[in-house]
Amino acid sequence: MISSSSDNVTKLNSINRRMFITGSLKFMVMIGLVSRLFFLQVKENKKYLTLSDKNRIREWKLAPVRGEFLDYFGNVIAGNFEAYQLHIIPEEVEDFRYVIYRLKDLLELSDKEFKKVLKKKNESKPWETLIISDNLDWKRFSKINNHLYDLNGVKPVISISRNYPFGENFTHIIGYVSQANENDIEKNEIIKKNFVPGLKVGKVGLEKSLEEKLLGTNDIERYEVNAYGRRISQLEFQKGKKGKTLRLTIDTEVQKLANELLKDKAGSICVMDIFTGSIIAMHSSPSFDPNLFVFGISQDEWQIIRNNPMKPLVNKTLQGNYSPGSTIKPIVALSALENGIINTNFTVKCTGKTDMYGQTYHCWKKKGHGFVSLRNAMKQSCDTYFYEIARKLGVDKLSETAKKFGLGKEVFGDLFSIEKKGLVPNTQWKKNALGKGWLLGETMITGIGQGYIQTTPIQLCLMTAQIANGGYKIYPKIIVDDEMKDQPNDKFSVLYKEAKNIRIIQDAMFGSTNEVMGTSYRSRINDPKYQFAGKTGTAQVKKITERDRELDLKTFEIPYEERDHALYIAFGPYKNPRYALSILVEHGGNGSTTAAPIAKKLFKLIIDRHSLRDSINNKKYLEI
Amino acid sequence: MYQHTRLTNNQFSFFQKFKNFDYILLVCILLLGFISLATMYSTDGGQILYHTKSHFTKLIVFSFMMLVFSFINIKFWFSVGYFFYILVIGLLVWTYLFGIQSSGSQRWIDLYFINLQPSELMKICIILCLAKYFHRMKLENVNSIYTILTSLIIILLPMGLVIVQPDLGTSLLIAVSGIAVLWFAGINHKYFIYTMLGFLISLPFIISFLKPYQKLRVLTFLNPDRDPLGAGYQIIQSKIAVGSGGIFGKGFLKGTQSYLEFLPEKHTDFIFTLFSEEFGFVGSAFLLIIYAIIIYRIVVIGATSRSFFAKLFCYSFAAAIFVFITINMSMVLGLLPIVGSPLPIMSYGGSSMLATMIGFGVVMSAKVHSQQSIA
Questions:
Q1: Among A300, B63, B207, B331, which one has the highest count of C-beta atoms within 10 angstroms of its own C-beta?
Q2: CA nearest to A389, candidates A463, A324, A451, A448
Q3: What dihedral do alpha carbons A305, A309, A314, A317 form, nearest 10°?
């Protein structure tokens, strides 16, 4: 009993000692746990709070609102409109099949469109928004709204989209937008940064080249999401910045007239302010409706545009390389005067043709013009005269003057990626490009704007403008707000050696339009307010054979593709000139009969609108 | 002597027993139950759904059971020690043979009204069994080879049965419970030190025997960022939840990590994470204090108990509960690799709560019958 109780005592001592050890250990471990909690929750709290927010908050970007295009008078020519759309979040719909078939009936969707929607649905997650229709007309949109009670989960949405109110009028200037593809995203950092599915970006024209300014920045929605990425609630809405609205120098009325005048013809019209270089109108015909592309063009409509023989997709003003024909003659004459090859008294006898090294060079007038001076040669566009002075001048001196006046390089610089340079040949060029020596005969045909020489209509317009303003260099522009910055140093620098030479050319062009025997005499306007001076041109598309000469067919008797291009350059009013223009009608036959009458109609409107245009300008300065 | 007899004859009245209750412990357990219920409500997204309802029912039933157990004489618990142990071993064998398979392991048996996890019960039964075994043993016999071997067999048998389920975590916790009894029974501390050393040395070999997923857990523990969306996901998200809680927490029902389903196993093993996210450092410390008080009270009950069995049971049970809590918290706080171990009372799970409540019941019975000596 005693031993048992002493055993009990030792046992108790042992267990209590060990309890004490255990208790101390527990205490220390407890301290350890608390300090771990303290470390995580107090010291590192910020880090884990950020991580937790990163977990739960996700951003959704919305398409930015694109900047608009205005014409000179502030009319919207590429704007935004509210597109009525229909969205569905499939998981929020109880009976998706019922709703989708009901919608098919209500919207009168074709089987093809319907299949597209179903395909899209299968590819996306059930909680992702499915766009059933991205541009509904009001009638169908209101119809859907009336049936909403029956269409659980269908959301009518108003979203902002591009709209071109003047349809095809401005297509070749501003281009159009359409859904961004991989190529667009890869090539443009700004698009990449602001990209959202369904984003529309510029594909051609100014819409493309000014993308950076127009695009704007995304609206950002922040949502709380769960571990599976599903939106739970909206936390924040951050409004993005609308893209920059750009005002163009274009006058919509003139642009519209240009469209009308070239209706059913292939060609180009451009009108320029000869002092500021502002483009008043720039049109390439035929055009197409840019609105077709905004929501994706249908295959049929695309084929119609693409297969049109008049090539609506080509911007003839900027992309079209044409032989300038006789419209080069003012430059040839000017070059000859400047280089002292001729003076105003220099005459050539035109017999209708010239022989040179066994080759015959024809004047357009078979009978010949007789003795012609510079002024008469310009007026009647005598080819023989220009063969002769070109021969005397040499192609190198001619090309120097032509380049000075803006031929052979892009008029807008980098603004339009599609713009062509044209070609002003010289001996060096031929050696480098073709590896052959220059022939004298080539100089002669260059003198009448045939052969290697190629110009774009916009270059001809610039050339005319620089002759009209007295021979000063200008930089054409199409966006108004560019005025202040990037003024090139050599703006208004002198292009001539002697000012009187320019006046001689201007006077010769006046004669060509306003005097009897002038090639465009029939298109003249006698009222000095509208009176203009110009030069016709007829560019051969194919070499004229002896047989053709004998036949001497009328324009309508020749197949369309073989007809000559009709050109006309002009400036006006003759006293105090303000505007220059160039007109090209592809396969129009003859400059004086096809192109010049167009100028007459244009000048009437342009000059009528001049005071209005001026008043906008003055007002602007008054406001400051 | 007379008095002694009278006491051993244990004629306490019902009210006397009530008076003898440890009310601090009881209040703490009920408070814990309430907190666990609130947390469960939060895991259900602020609605009374399945988990909350089920947890509530279990809490009521098992608390009541605990009170009933407290009125049963500690002598009874002594007498059923071996029987309980054998019963649960039987259940484990049954589990092995006919258990319910779920997610790759066979841990449950279907009792028609409840799916029972016998391994959880074993955590308590092994304490009862070993406490009874060592109760009458003289100190000089404790360290005999025979005793040590017997107790080792008592521990290893259920461990083996649980490991084959497979459930390494629970089997380790069973071992912890058993070893705690051995420690308090007075087995020479040298054995513990040698075992510890031996374990450390053989650790690399043990690791080579681990199943691939267990190895992955260890590796993930050492560097959770090695596979943040796979194996490391749980521990990273759990740390984010706790860490983002801050001092005062995100507020009740406002834990984004759990609400938005970033937390895995939020009802069971990771319940502390959710609690900690919503109530912050202050709340977590408060919870720890409640657990500390519970453990302290159990130790005090053991110290004031007259019988060696009661002492042994209380001390061991306190140590075991403490280890369960520590392991669970260390796991969710990224201090230990992930082993499946519930947080007593807080975690959803009937068997775990049943086992813990049985333990509390026996402790309470020891308190009520603290003057009871066992022959």
A1: B331
A2: A448
A3: -130
- Chain B residue numbers with beta carbons less than 8 Å from the beta carbon of A15 are 184-186, 308, 311-312, 315
Judge whether A13 is closer than 8 Å to chain B, CB to CB: no
A142: closest CA of chain B, how far (Å): 38
Please report the beta strands in A150-209, taking only residues with DSSP state E, as ranges in sequence order. Answer: 154-163, 177-179, 200-202
Backbone angles phi, psi at B194, to 5 degrees: -65, -45
Residue B281: which of A4, A29, A42 has the nearest Cβ?
A42
Of the candidates A171, A180, A220, the residue with the CA atom closest to the CA atom of residue A200: A180
Residue pLDDT, tens place only, A250-268? 999 999 999 999 998 999 9
pLDDT-derived band of residue A558, with 50, 70 and 90 as boundaries?
confident
Q: In this complex, is the C-beta atom of B304 within 8 Å of any C-beta atom belonging to chain A? A: no
The nearest CA of chain A is from the CA of B245 a distance in Å of 6
A33 at the B interface (CB within 8 A)?
yes
Q: State the smallest CA–CA distance between residue A59 and chain B in angstroms.
A: 16
Write the DSSP symbol of residue A557.
Answer: G
Cα(A385)–Cα(A551) distance, rounded to whole angstroms? 25
A18-27, A36-45, A195-204, A295-304: range with lowest mean pLDDT: A195-204
B261 touching chain A per CB within 8 A: yes
Closest of A586, A555, A532, A579 to residue A268, by C-alpha:
A586
Q: Where are the domains of chain B?
A: 2-368
Residues of B in contact with A10 (CB under 8 A): 139
Which residues, in sequence order, are bridge partners of residue B163?
none
Cis peptide bond upstream of A425, omega within 30: no
Q: Establish how many alpha carbons lie within 13 A of residue A29's alpha carbon, considering only the half-sphere containing its beta carbon.
A: 19
If one counts every other C-beta atom within 10 angstroms of the C-beta of residue B74, the result is 27
pLDDT at position A121 over 90: no
**By the 8 A CB rule, do B334 and B259 touch?**
no
Distance (Å) from the alpha carbon of A95 to chain B's nearest alpha carbon: 27
- pTM over 0.80? The answer is no
**pLDDT recorded at residue A624:** 42
Q: Kindly state whether B245 is in contact with chain A, defined as any CB-CB distance less than 8 angstroms.
A: yes
Backbone torsions φ then ψ of B107, nearest 5 degrees: -115, -15
Partners of residue B257 in chain A, C-beta under 8 Å: 52, 55-56
Of the candidates A356, A359, A354, the residue with the CA atom closest to the CA atom of residue A369: A354
Among A30, A41, A232, whose Cβ lies nearest the Cβ of B292? A30
